[in-house]
Every structure is written in C-alpha cells, then in structure tokens.
Specification:
The protein has an eight-stranded mixed beta sheet, covered by helices on one side. The protein folds into two domains: 55 residues, Signal recognition particle alu RNA binding heterodimer, srp9/1, CATH 3.30.720; 48 residues, 2,3-Dihydroxybiphenyl 1,2-Dioxygenase, domain 1 (Roll), CATH 3.10.180. It contains two helices and eight strands; from the N terminus they run βαββββαβββ. The chain is globular and about 40 Å long. It is of the alpha+beta class.
C-alpha cells in the first residue's frame, strides 16, 4: 500500500436541530464548556478530541455524525481514496484558519471526513 498514513480520527461533527439545547447536553457529557460558540458551530476540545455541533442539514448537508480523519495532505489523500473507489461528496475547502476539510463516500454511501490543519 502506498500513500500517506492518517493521523487518526481527532474530530467528529454532530448535526443537531437545536444548537443551544445540544450545547448543554454535550457540555454536561464532556464536562467542559465549548471553546467555540457560534451560530453555525459549537466546538469542544477534550482528551485530544474535537467534538463539534453543526446545524443539521446546514451548509454541509449533514444528517448524521461524520468522523474526520486528520491527514497531512488532503489533496493527496483525496486522490488516493477516490482511486480506491470512494466518491467525493464535498471537495476540499478552507473552513477558517487554514483548516481544510473534505468528505467522501465509501462504496456503501458512508460519509468519511478528511481534515488538514495548516
């Protein structure tokens, strides 16, 4: 197998219907306040994990949680996984601060996230 290894799943985004209500539940579950609290994203950092809440069906069209695999080169990894049979669901794009994200679907339609920090 060629290509670059991932750095593991470090980010999981959960689509929610009510950010304010979900924020309270996740804060209680995780035992920390959110580090990011915006109308389009609420983010928690705990135990080396980023747990994000996003409006369901919003700009990312999410309807179920998506785990994001951290990769050193998102374009190279997109090329590798599409060559192996994945389909690009959402092309790589900057979501702020130089962070790039993309999603692909596997042959069964499961959404897999890719994330590259600058």
């Amino acid at each position: 197998m060629t290509g670059s290894a991932t750095q593991g799943i470090k980010t999981v985004l959960h689509p929610v219907s009510d950010l304010a209500k979900a924020k309270e539940v996740y804060a209680a579950l995780l035992g920390v306040a959110p580090q990011t609290d915006e109308s389009y994203y609420v983010g928690f950092e705990v135990a080396g994990q980023s747990i994000g809440l996003v409006p369901a069906g919003g700009s990312q069209g999410m309807t179920s949680p998506v785990a994001y695999w951290h990769v050193p080169d998102i374009e190279a990894k997109l090329a590798e996984v599409t060559a192996a049979g994945a389909t690009v669901h959402e092309p790589a794009h900057d979501v702020g601060g130089g962070r790039l994200v993309a999603t692909v679907t596997d042959p069964d339609g499961n959404v897999l996230g890719l994330l590259q920090d600058q």
